[in-house]
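Q: Please design a sequence for this.
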């Protein structure tokens, strides 16, 4: 019921309108609802509108109730989704052991099949070269000693020269000089000495040792070579002959060498080296 003061709202729009608060009899259990609660479920009662409640308060109260209802619906939806989600299952120890046994059985069958294939194949022949070596004797290591040891001193290798006899020394020179003397065949050379054991010269009776000494002097002074007269054309075939290490086409050339070396007529003359016994004129003396 509307009550107007000083006029009717239909006729005077300036008159304020108040909404009369519903009254509830004292001692009554009846619930007074707002005109806006018509669609509110009975299970979720709206707050009562007090005597000082305005239209704005009623609207605000209804909005709060709607938010609460929406939150309840959201919670129910979450519980439904949790109920519909399938539960996670974990592997039991029995399942793990069974899986391991199955893998081991598969590995054993694979090895068995591969072994049968290898036994069935014929291996190719292999050629191996074996070097036969003599087995080295086993060495027995001596026990380690704590005593100080001295390394054996090394002895330098020494060459022992066996002294040749006088005859052997003359033969050694002759063999060493033969190749050079052969290049003089058919040419003239300065002859410096010709001796045999028993030769007497300047009061000296020569033996092999004296001949060695005399030829060694000529070898040192003039580079003399040694030949044995039996190998060439000589009147005597047992002489040890010392000659100069040079040759000439003529006898005069050999004599000029004697003069240049200041060697006298009895100790240097020209000699033709030849193997031809038919040639008789093989000696030329200094004037």
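A: Design:
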């Amino acid at each position: 019921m509307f009550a107007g003061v000083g006029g009717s709202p239909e006729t005077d729009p300036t008159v304020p309108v108040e909404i009369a608060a519903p009254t509830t009899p004292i001692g009554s259990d009846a619930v007074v609802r707002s005109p806006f609660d018509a669609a509110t479920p009975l299970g979720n009662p709206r707050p009562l509108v007090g005597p000082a409640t305005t239209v704005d308060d009623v609207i605000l109260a209804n909005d709060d109730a709607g938010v609460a209802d929406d939150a309840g619906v959201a919670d129910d939806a979450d519980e439904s989704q949790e109920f519909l989600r399938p539960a996670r299952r974990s592997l039991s120890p029995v399942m793990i052991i069974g899986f391991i046994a199955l893998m081991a059985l598969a590995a054993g069958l694979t090895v068995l099949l591969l072994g049968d294939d290898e036994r069935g194949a014929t291996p190719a022949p292999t050629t191996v070269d074996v070097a036969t070596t003599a087995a080295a004797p086993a060495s027995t290591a001596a026990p380690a000693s704590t005593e100080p040891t001295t390394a054996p001193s090394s002895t330098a290798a020494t060459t022992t020269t066996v002294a040749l006899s006088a005859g052997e020394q003359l033969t050694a020179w002759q063999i060493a000089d033969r190749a050079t003397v052969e290049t003089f065949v058919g040419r003239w050379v300065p002859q410096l000495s010709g001796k045999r054991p028993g030769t007497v010269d300047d009061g000296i009776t020569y033996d092999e040792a004296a001949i060695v000494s005399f030829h060694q002097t000529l070898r040192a002074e003039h580079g003399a070579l040694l030949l044995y007269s039996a190998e060439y054309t000589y009147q005597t075939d047992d002489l040890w002959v010392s000659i100069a290490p040079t040759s000439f086409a003529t006898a005069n050339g050999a004599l000029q060498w004697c003069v240049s070396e200041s060697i006298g007529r009895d100790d240097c003359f020209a000699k033709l080296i030849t193997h031809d016994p038919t040639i008789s004129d093989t000696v030329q003396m200094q004037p």
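Q: Thanks. Anything notable?
A: The longest strand covers residues 188-195. Residues 55-84 form the longest helix (30 residues).
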